Amino acid sequence: MIAGWLLLLASLLYVGLLFVVAYAGDRRPLYPRQPKLRPIVYSLALAVYCSSWTFYGAVGTAAREGLGYLPIYLGPALLFIFGFGLMRRLAVVARQRNITSIADFIGARFGKSHALAAAVALIAVIAIVPYLALQFKAVSMSYAALGGGSSQFGDSALWCAILLATFSILFGTRTIDATEHHHGMMLAIALESLIKLAAFAALAVYALWHGPGLQATVELPVRQFAQGISPGFMAQTLLAFCAMFCLPRQFQIGVVECEDPNDLYRARWMFPLYMLIVSVAVVPIVAAGLRLPAVSHGIADAWVLNLPLANGDRGMALLAFIGGFSAATGMVIVSSVALSTMISNDLVMPALLRIRRLRLEQRSDLSQLVLLVRRIAIVALACMAYVYYRAVADSADLAATGLLAFAAVAQFAPAIVSALYWRGASRRGVATGLLAGFGVWVYTLLIPATNPMASWLKEGPLGLSWLQPQALFHLSGWDPVMHGTFWSLLANVGCLVFISLRFRPSLEERLHAAMFIEPYAVDSGGASDWRGRVSVADLRTIAERIVGERSSQRAFEEYGERRGRALTAGESADRALIQYTERLLASAVGAASARRILMGALSGSGLDIAEAMALMDEASQELRFNRELLSTTLENVSQGISVVDAGMRLVAWNRRYLELFDYPDGMVYVGVPVADLIRWNAEHGECGPGEVEEHVAKRIGYMRAGSPHLFQRIRPDGTVIEMRGRALPGGGYVTTYTDVTAYKHAEQALIEANETLEQRVGQRTAELSEALAATARARREAEAANASKTRFLAAASHDLLQPLNAARLFTSALRQQPGLDPDSAQLAERIDASFRAAEDLLDALLDTSRLDAGSYRPDIGSFAVADLFDSLKAQFAVIAEQRGLQFRIVNTRLAVRSDPQLLRRILQNFVSNALRYTQRGGVLVGARRIGKEVRIEVWDTGPGIAEEQRARIFDEFQRLERPSPWGEKGLGLGLSICDRIAHILDHRLELSSRVGRGSRFAVVVPRVDAMPPRRRAITQPAVVVERLPLTVLCLDNDPAILDGMRALLTRWGVDCRVALDLKQAEQELRQGGVDMILADFHLADDMNGLQALQYLRGVLGDLPPVAMITADGSSELKQRARLLGYPLLHKPVRPAALRALLSARLRKTTA
Q1: How many CB atoms lie within 10 A of CB 598?
Q2: Exposed (0-12), middle (13-18) or buried (19+): which is 154, by Cβ within 10 Å?
Q3: Coil, strand or helix: which one is 627?
Q4: Could you give the dihedral angle defined by the CA atoms of residues 930, 931, 933 and 934, in that order, rounded to the nearest 10 degrees?
Q5: Phi/psi at 664 (nearest 5 deg)?
Q6: Of 412-416, 778-782, 793-797, where does mean pLDDT reach its minimum?
Q7: Residue 477 gets which letter from DSSP?
Q8: Are 268 and 434 in contact (CB under 8 A)?
């Protein structure tokens, strides 16, 4: 068994992964910009069809019925192989008509009927709720199987419903435009398909390895085939065939989210291949399960989970859980998004618009209301599915529940097929067929599933045996699903054909039929100059209420730009504008609701209903003519032209633009971010010298600011391109590219032929003046940038080291925890060592940045070299002894003038590198007098440095290719820091080396008269105090730091008081008894520790001794602390240094 918390953690991490992928896909759309990747993502996303039913239920079905599991895989494959034309036609029509859902599709085809769309939406909701409940059942079953039935975290199905509903709301209801492609969701669903495929295939391989063997596995399907197929095989295959375009989630992914119908060509073989892999993988799992009694005696639907558990392999069991959870996740998310769109557009919003008390017609913006309705719909769906799961689905097997949903949505198939291929199909016929088929489905399948123990099911209602739900008209002996599917589809098709022949389609329906039955035909209707009595202002007001003011304004401005003139509020709207407005509304609330809204506006304007119908259904030849005229003009001008929209995406270009830049095939398409094209040009030298991203940022900045610009660029091939850019009204940017090479050559020849000496002198003078001015500007900008960088470093060093400081404190407290077992102690020691390494890394990086920023102020003074040598010996002698190396320091009486801290830093890096790379021999440190200078040298017997490497070892992140014999790994920053310090101190660095013999590093420093060294007095080591009976007040604005200090100091016996701000500090000090204050330098409200202490001293008078703790390593702070007599501890605080400080304080108090 696996712990319940681990299963919950795995679920949360998986949903979090989908969240990150979807978020990244929405923020930076990946696959739409790459034509080769988009079909792959689309094909994988289609595999959302493989829900938990196919992951768990298929194995259970195969165990019970043999080949009876194959139909759910065979049907979709047959659709893509033999019904490909149907899928492609669906995708083309949906793209042309801005279709948002399956209900919108059927309603738009049959006269844009709102009632028909509402009926489809209602049937879809009723059909899919059991299917959603199936997913919750699968998750609950897997949790119970792996967790031993534990309910540690409550009902797992409830948590699943909450998680998936939240995810669906976050990435399915961001925008009101339901035709906008959900790039992030598609990317997440594609990843989910890969994960469940990998998990299922891994389980199959695992089953082969632990099962009866390859031969026995191959014999299993042979035996099953010999037994024959199950009675419902053909019916289930038909249901699976229809499900691929009738399930709301499959319609959403396969039709609505299809950006290019040509992507179906890749999916035509990728998706059947996916189905083949999954169906074949079922066989070894079933064979292995039949072999193990611990598996075969359990629930067949749980064999996928029980197989690895029976072998004691919890890792594989967890992988199976993730695969099943992944399968359920994708289905719930996409179904929730699709159904919420239908509920909003076809059920709730039309009903709300009819309620006059709400006065929605008076509201200026309904977009947020539409989004709210969709989000509430998702929550309601999750609740209904959960209730159904608790009431019904908990007692049914997965396959039965899945087939129940398949049979329900199959009722949409006759309507969809007739919508695309039969002109004679009428709205009445389709509506009657849907209701009849759905009614028979409820009677023959849903009622028996929800109440299987009812006595009248076997006797028939009122004792009429010929009306038995599962034996209608005494047709018995059939599989229940096959029986219900046969009668429901028979009633559906029969009513559709009969009613359509009895009541012929109306004129409106016939007009719409042409758009669906002939989607590839080009409308050649004549242009119309009709103008009615509906004004532009009226249409814009309607649009603003539905899609929002900003979206409406942008859409109407774009329409006016395409027509070549601005729209005025008072003018009458023409035919094309009315049709354009309808399509705009349809993208938000569906075609049926859009028709209803506009019909109300048109009927209120006094139009004849026939005129209104003609306006709404005839395509605008004038708009198409304008497009063709603009396209022809662009293609025949000699200039390259590119147009981007307000979102900085390419929307138009001409052939000359492609010829000038020679982009790779497939790189340029409508909607590609213009930043990608600029980046490609910069990488190929089209933008001149400089960083690629700087070129991209500069040009995008021009466009976003709307600044006109004129620029001439000399290309690598010598040609000169002149670029002129100008902002477009309402957002966007147009740029022209002209080849002016010939003009520039002629201009240059003319200048060279006519210019005189005086003109040349004047030109040079002007250039010099300009260069001087530019230099002055650059210097000012550099100084400003340097100051900004210095301020940033001060803040960054504090923010970077704060969490590291807290971690070091907590680790030290853990290491000193009494009773810690050896393994935990070793683990704590390793954690502490890791934090020390991270501290060294941050110190090196921050030192490099501070040195570059010039924030170090050297403290120059005279001192004896022997003082430096003493500190080096104390620091490195033990390390050399541990490695068996000699470490010698030659005594000297020389004195130098420099900054002792920075000079010691240089020598520390020299010695550290020498010990790192020296395997045998030793290291020698000494000083030589050279005139008025002293050369301090570090010799080693290491491998030496090749001549070609010496010039670059002082650069950042440069290390010797030869590894350290002691396993140390440097960052390559040490010598770079030395070089920067030497530059600040105006010292000279020297290097000489012989490969195989060793190296000599030296720094040359100004010499001064000899002075005695300040030798430290040798004192007896202080007695280690096990407990420190002190009261210490810690002042810091970070609660984590205070918690860490309290944990560490308490281990030492210190009474630790903490304060987050001045008020708390003042209260603690007024209580008295504080022996010492540890104050952070960076506090909240733009106050530092020195200011805080000054305030407290002014309020309270004398204060206890103070020590400052800071991540600021600036010289100014060190000098201020020294003047005030405050000891300074740097973050991350080393516990040894802190303990030494407190011990010294204790000795003073007890002296």
Answers
A1: 24
A2: exposed
A3: helix
A4: 30
A5: -65, 155
A6: 793-797
A7: S
A8: no
- Evaluate whether 706 touches 679 at the Cβ level (below 8 Å): no
Q: What order of strands is seen across the sheet that includes strand 650-653? A: 650-653, 640-644, 733-739, 720-727, 709-714
Q: How far is CA 1008 from the centre of its chain?
A: 62
Rounded to 10°, the helix 303-310/263-291 angle is 50
Least Cα distance to 1033 among 1087, 1089, 1085 occurs for 1089
- Mean pLDDT is lowest, of 204-218, 601-615, 827-841, 1096-1110, for 601-615
CA-CA distance, 364 to 269, in Å (whole number)?
Answer: 49
Which pLDDT score, from 0 to 100, does residue 1041 have? Answer: 85
**For the sheet containing 1106-1110, what is the strand order?**
1055-1059, 1031-1035, 1076-1080, 1106-1110, 1128-1130
Structure tokens at 468: 């038995």
Tokens encoding 140: 């609950």
Please determine, for residue 1015, whether its predicted confidence score (pLDDT) is greater than 50. yes
| Burial grade of 410 (CB within 10 A; 0-12, 13-18, 19 or more) | buried
Integer Cα distance of 1012 and 1086 in angstroms: 45
Residue, of 814 and 720, whose pLDDT is higher: 720
Which runs of consecutive H residues, i.e. helices, occur in 148-182? Answer: 156-172
Residue 695 to residue 685: CA distance in whole angstroms: 11
pLDDT mean over 829-849? 61
Domain 757-841+1025-1151 has CATH 3.40.50.2300: yes
Cα separation of 956 and 224, whole Å? 68
| Helical packing angle, 398-409 and 427-441, nearest 10° | 160
In the chain, what are the domain boundaries? 4-413, 532-624, 637-754, 757-841+1025-1151, 856-1008
Whole-angstrom distance, CA of residue 441 vs CA of residue 437: 6
Dihedral over alpha carbons 17, 20, 23, 29 (to 10 degrees):
-90
Over residues 862-866, mean pLDDT: 92
For 598, residues 6+ apart whose C-beta sits below 8 A from its C-beta are: 542, 578, 581, 582, 585, 616
pLDDT digit string (tens) for 82-92? 888 888 888 88
Q: Are 407 and 369 in contact (CB under 8 A)?
A: no
C-alpha 462/C-alpha 459 separation (Å) is: 8
Q: What is the mean pLDDT of residues 395-420?
A: 79
Task: Compute, in degrees rounded to 10, the torsion defined by CA atoms 329, 334, 336, 340.
Answer: 170
Q: Which of 176, 119, 261 is nearest to 586 (CA)?
A: 176
Please report the pLDDT score of residue 876 as a whole number.
86
Token output for 982:
């030497």
Q: What CATH number matches the domain at 637-754, 3.40.190.10, 3.30.450.20, 3.30.70.360, 3.40.50.300?
A: 3.30.450.20
Is there a contact between 211 and 383 (Cβ–Cβ < 8 Å)?
no
How far apart, in whole angstroms, are the C-alpha atoms of residue 920 and residue 666?
60
- Taking the C-alpha atoms of residue 13 and residue 329, their distance in angstroms, rounded to an integer, is 13
When mean pLDDT is compared over 438-452, 864-878, 1109-1123, the highest value belongs to: 864-878
Angle (deg, nearest 10), helices 314-342 and 102-109: 30
Domain 856-1008 in this protein, CATH class: alpha beta
Distance CA 252, CA 172 (A): 11
Spell out the residues 6+ positions from residue 431 whose beta carbon is closer than 8 angstroms to its own.
Answer: 110, 113, 115, 116, 119
Angle (CA) 726-729-731 rounded to 5° is 85
Q: What is the CATH number of domain 4-413?
A: 1.20.1730.10
Dihedral Cα 693, 698, 702, 704, nearest 10 deg: 40
Q: Is the pTM of this model over 0.90?
A: no
